[in-house]
Each structure stands twice: as structure tokens, then as C-alpha cells.
Amino acid sequence: MHTIFTLLIIATCFLPIYLLFAFIPYLSRRTECLGVGIPEEQYDTPELSILRKKYRNSILLGGGLFIAVVFLTVFMNMEQFAEMVMVVSLLMMIITEGSIYLHYHKKIKMLKKDNGWLSENVQILVADTTLVSGKECASPLWFILYPLIIILTILTGLLLFDTMPDRVPIKFDFQGHVIRWADKSIGVVFFAPLTQLFLSITFILTYVGIRNAKRQIDASNPDESRKRISIFRKAWSYFTVFGGLLLLLMFGLMQLSFIGIITNQSTTIIFTMGPVILLIAAAIALSVKIGQGGSRVNIKRYSNDQGMVINRDDDQYWKYGVFYVNRNDPAIFLEKRAGIGWTINFGQPLSWIIIVGFVLFSGVFVIVSNWLTK
To answer: What pLDDT is stored for residue 332 in this prediction?
Structure first.
């Protein structure tokens, strides 16, 4: 069981990062490659195709080496080193793959400059000022279920408090061993609901970001672009709503473990890791099926009647193709250039207020959680 638990940790920590880095250029819009804006007609050129393959193979090789080290540690029964090896390997993998990304990001930037892709086309910025349609995102009414689940979790803990064992397992190591216990108390009853509250606020804020994100319309084909963006937003808004529900239910089941209704450790691990693995699998499936901005959606291709028109080049606002810094853009949320999802405009003061506020909120959550289970 310990080996299985460790492999589940590897699956949830290593594989998503590993696969995301490796297939970034294949999931992004066809007007972007590793954080660099490109004309869509250049996407399938031999030079760019070769760079994408080299990047992918470098990531798969580099990240694969660190994952292999972790697997060897597990199967050689070196449990005393497993946690340290996992943490160090994960950090080294992120640093290595990040360095590979930056290397090829610079190469594509140079390729774009050397071939004069911008000088051959007319650059246009398309702004979409229409309000978000109610059909474009999941209904916010789904979030009514969040407080209901939290209340049910609290009531379950209070009503069945007498069945709670004298000591409750709170934290496990990478081998599934209990490394922290908490004494029976009302504080333990409120640990799961507090975590549910933290997750609820996080997922609701994510939904708000998706719903209010700037539409990035492709200048060469605006009608098709709008359809793709609509599908992209709707899919990920539903993922956010129901992903949050799944995790809230997971902590509701953990409450049953705390109060002694579920006593089997294997069952507890399944309830803990199962929903997380399911969400990761769903996120990967959505990414592959839909792509960034709906780029992989199979819909009717509209003919480009704009001639040699491309999106306005705004590489100067994208630092390393990852961080968007534009004080002249009032948008707070917008699509990422590298990867799947959304990011924020670091050039706007409100973005920093959101970041600092969330960090403080997370810090308070950690402090209160430790206090409840001390």
C-alpha cells in the first residue's frame, strides 16, 4: 500500500508538470509558440516544426530522468530518502524544464526576427467589448451547493462528535505513514469545513477570472475565434464549478474519517487521492481536446477575407512569454501564452492587490488550520 501511495503522489505532483511543459507548443493557439506571437501561416513551417519537436524531446528526456530517479528510490525500498528525493527531484525538474523553455523561447524569437514575419503582414488589434453571455460560462447558481456542503460537513462532525477517536490522523508522509496526529476536539471538527471554505473562495475567484477575462480575438479570423473562445470558456468554467464540488465532497468524506465512521486507511487514501487524480485527468483531457483558447476545437474553418492580416505584435508586454505587464491595458485577466488557462496583467495595481490579498488569505488559512488541529 505504501508503494501505491507513493506512486499516486508521483502521478499527482510530477506527471502534470512534466506533460504540460512537454506539450505547451501543441496546446497553444496557432498564433503563438512558446510564448512568442507568430503569424498563423508560419505555424506549420519546417523551421518551427523542428524547433517544437526538439523542445518536446528535450523536455521529455530531461524531466524523464528525474522521474526515473524517483521511481528507483521507491522500488529499491529506500523509504527513508523518498520524501527528500521527491522534493529535490520536483524542484530540479521544474528548474530544468523552465530553462529548456527559455532557451527555445529565445530561439523562436530570433527566428521571428530573422525571417521578418511582422514586416510581411498588416498588424491589427481586434477589441471585443460585448458583455459575457450567460450561455458562455456555467451558471453561478451552481455555487449555491458550496455552502450547503460546508454546512452538512459541520453538522456531521458536531452530531457524531462522540464517535470521534481520541486521536485523529491529520498528516501523512509520501509512504502513507501518519506523521501528525491531533487530539479529539471541536477544532478538529471544523478543520475540514475550514478547508472547504478556503477551496470555495479559491474556485469562485477562479470562475470570476474566467468570466471576466479579456477575449483575445484573432484578427485574421474574428468570427471563428469568437466561437472557439466561447467553447473554451464554457468548458473550463464547468470544470471549475464541478472540480470545486468534487474537492468539497472529498473533504466531507475526510470528516467521516476524522469522526471514526471510515476507519480503513486504504479507503481514506482512495477518498483523498482519487478526486485529485480524477481532476488532473480531466484537466489533461480538456487541454488536449480543446487547447488554449479553443485552438484544438474541431469546428468549421472560416475563410480569411482579411488578406495578410495578423494580430498586433505585443511580445514586448510578455516577459519570457509568461508574465503579461501592460499598464495601458485595463484588462486584469487574460489567456496565457504558454500553457493552458488564464493569467493576470501584472501591469495593473489591482492585480497586485489580488495577489497580495490571496497570499495573506492563504497564510491566515494555514495559521488557523494549525491552531484548530494542534
So the answer is: 92
Considering only CA atoms, which of 27, 30, 100 is closest in space to residue 61?
100
Q: Which residue has the higher pLDDT, 217 or 171?
A: 217
The residue extents of the domains of the chain are 2-372
Distance between CA atoms of residues 240 and 207, nearest Å: 6
Write the DSSP assignment of 314-344 as a string of letters.
-GGGEETTTEE--TT---SEEE-SSSSSEEE
Helices 265-290 and 15-22: crossing angle in degrees, nearest 10, is 10
8-22, 29-43, 204-218, 320-334: least confidently modelled range: 8-22
Residue 36: strand, helix, or coil: strand
Say if residue 2's pLDDT is above 60: no
Contact 45, 112 (CB under 8 A): no
The predicted model scores a pTM of 0.85
What was the pLDDT predicted at 170?
A: 74
| Averaged pLDDT of the chain | 83
Handedness of CA 236, 238, 241, 243 (dihedral sign): negative
**Alpha carbons 91 and 261: distance in angstroms, whole number:** 38
User: Phi and psi for 41 in degrees, rounded to 5?
Assistant: -70, -15
Rounded to the nearest angstrom, the gap between the alpha carbon of residue 70 and the centroid of all alpha carbons in its chain is: 23
Instruction: Report how far apart, in Å, the C-alpha atoms of 108 and of each of 61, 250, 284, 336, 345 are.
Output: 21, 43, 26, 17, 23
